[in-house]
Model the fold of this input.
Amino acid sequence: GNSVTQMEGPVTLSEEAFLTINCTYTATGYPSLFWYVQYPGEGLQLLLKATKADDKGSNKGFEATYRKETTSFHLEKGSVQVSDSAVYFCALSSYSGYALNFGKGTSLLVTP
Amino acid sequence: DADVTQTPRNRITKTGKRIMLECSQTKGHDRMYWYRQDPGLGLRLIYYSFDVKDINKGEISDGYSVSRQAQAKFSLSLESAIPNQTALYFCATSDQSAGGPIGEQFFGPGTRLTVL
Done:
């Protein structure tokens, strides 16, 4: 079946540090891939997505590239800010699925 | 105004009580979902609904029931609440009217439920 594996957190970084959150997936066919962000006290909101291999999703300085050969969709940001402190979820969808499959989430804390 | 709303936002109840969590959406989406979030476990799907007459169990439906009263309303009930149902509950919607794989899901702000 479909599944998503994310690196475990929490991840603690200083402001302006480089961020990578690893995400790998298992799926049949060619899934679409998503990163969602959950700020404290809020629901999840879409951060970026990619629908086919080699696509790069980007938003708010975050990027992730859909790598079919390594079944990965790692989230990166060149310089994090305190306001990026949140929980990040990797997710996938496929034609055979009925809902998004979410990873367990990675908590990010950025300190000044 | 928020597109996906949930009521209540916080609820404390006692073991054995019946409780209903409500979700409304103004996005006009056909599909609606209920998830629960627990620390270290991520989001787990409780129920999902393709339309008013099509409701399906997710991976952790035991102890829960749902009602899709209208396209815009999807309620989750705990018939007899127990402490391990203490969690953060999210409603979500998606638009699948054009078919294809699941696209973006839109989430409500969540309901924090505590069962004592």
